[in-house]
Design goal:
Chains A, B: It comes from Falsigemmobacter faecalis. Chain A contains 9 helices and 12 strands. With 266 residues, chain A is an alpha/beta fold. Chain A folds into 2 domains: 100 residues, Leucine Dehydrogenase, chain A, domain 1 (Rossmann fold, 3-Layer(aba) Sandwich); 143 residues, NAD(P)-binding Rossmann-like Domain (Rossmann fold). Chain A has a 6-stranded mixed β-sheet. The first copy, chain A, has a 6-stranded parallel β-sheet with strand order 9-8-7-10-11-12, sandwiched between helices. In chain A, helix 1 packs across helix 9 and helix 5 runs parallel beside helix 6. The radius of gyration of chain A is 18 Å and the shape is globular. The model of chain A has no long low-confidence stretch (mean pLDDT 95). At the A-B interface, strand 1, helix 1, strand 2 and helix 2 of A face strand 1, helix 1, strand 2 and helix 2 of B.
Chain lengths: 266, 266
């Protein structure tokens, strides 16, 4: 990769930042498409977000920037325009800088997640899913799964209010998907679900608790993970040992380069 | 080059930006030193500089940033600390972000220029130099040449006041160097000078006028250029055809990676 004054730039805003590999995934994908575009990580603490965004508006060779934990929801009120997806989801994971410096937010997490499932041949229509986490990445996954024809969705979250809020949003958009919320510690065991998705951050740190009990998985269930570092989380390793097909976090990230390039009109 | 969340970042702020190759020169030099550091160009117009700097203060994985045309002098009042070099020169070409978000400006243009001359075996002590340009890059070159023991320095600039201001500063710092200023169109012909330096931007655009008349160069004169794109400017090509040793702009840039790494404590 050669970065010169002709290279358009892109960032991923995160805090913490050391675990981020999306910059490299995007850079490799852009290079493969012959695009002169370079993505770097910006370690932005929550209290610095507004000020950083004011600065980014002024940078003329900035194509856009990705947002990850903890900025996906916090960035919303700081933007000028939102796509329908971002508005419905209530979270933004990519922002385009328009030529006048205004900022348009979208969310390609859901589309990336669905593309990752599809690449592994995972069927969603008519199936039952257990989703752990109703945060910045859980929200787009819930909407995308429901829109893809899921028959039943259970959303488990530490904070019940957020899970209920998300369930209500999904029911309003896709009444045909039976959607309910529960508190994490009251969630049903994973057996009986075709798809179990970890959309929490549990598994990033070595001493994290398991997001659900993998001993109660049936081998025909698919386990999907949103965490990219480590590439194989403890719960994935245990699920794989039980014979489950596992879809890693990277599977969700990789298609996003194409989705982002499309959103940027490249 | 692999850019991940562990990579420390760096920028070069410029307007225009398309001609910038310093990002690539630095990235190659950092990689050769085994440093996980990536430099990208930021196209920042003058009216956006203050806002961009406020944002950069918030970015915790930012090692620092370079400043080039037109920001070298404009950035000064926006910084918290200046090195002695930057203060004397009145221009900053590199800024370090301290861990508390404060910004320290320095100037390694002069040291880079001198290292470039040295690498080509060019002697300065006791010699006579004609310097074209008294701007952000002409200023550090003037001070560095005088400090290196030049016997005579003529500074030609379109705006005579700036040339006189610089000449006065050099005389105050190095009384032993006979330094005088003149307006560009009144400048003496290059013959008789051991060293002729183009520190103007003339030569970047194909239809630029020549910064001086190379037909009046003597073959024993050395011609130094600060422009990096194109690598060989028209005046350099004509000087080389007359048998003059030419020191390209890249020779001044290349040593700066080491100087910047040292300033950053890497």
């Amino acid at each position: 990769m050669k970065i010169t004054g002709k290279t358009r730039i892109m960032f991923i805003l995160a805090d913490p930042v050391a675990h981020v590999i999306g910059t490299d995934v995007l850079n490799q994908a852009f290079a493969a498409r012959g695009l002169d575009l370079a993505c770097s990580p910006l370690h932005v603490p929550p209290e610095g977000l507004a000020s950083v965004l004011q600065g980014l508006r002024q940078i003329r060779n900035l194509a856009g920037f990705g947002c990850t934990i903890p900025h996906k929801a916090a960035v919303l009120p700081l933007l000028d325009q939102l796509t329908e997806e971002a508005r419905a989801i209530g979270a933004v994971n990519f922002v385009r800088r328009e030529s006048d410096g205004s900022l348009t937010g979208t969310n390609v997490d859901g589309a990336g997640f669905m593309a990752g499932l599809k690449a592994q041949g995972v069927e969603v229509t008519g199936r039952r899913a257990l989703l752990l986490g109703a945060g910045g990445v859980g929200r787009p996954i819930a909407f995308s799964l429901a829109l893809a024809g899921l028959s039943e969705l259970v959303i488990a979250n530490r904070d019940l209010t957020r899970a209920e809020d998300l369930a209500e949003g999904v029911r309003a958009l896709v009444p045909g998907c039976r959607t309910r919320a529960c508190e994490s510690r009251e969630m049903p065991p994973p057996e009986g679900f075709d798809l179990v998705i970890n959309a929490t951050s549990l598994g990033m740190k070595p001493d994290d608790a398991l997001p659900f009990d993998p001993r109660r998985l049936q081998p025909q269930s698919v386990v999907a993970e949103v965490i990219m570092t480590p590439a194989v989380t403890p719960v994935m390793a245990m699920a794989a040992a039980r014979g489950c097909l596992c879809v890693p976090g990277l599977a969700m990230m990789r298609p996003q380069a194409g989705l982002v390039a499309e959103f940027l009109g490249l």
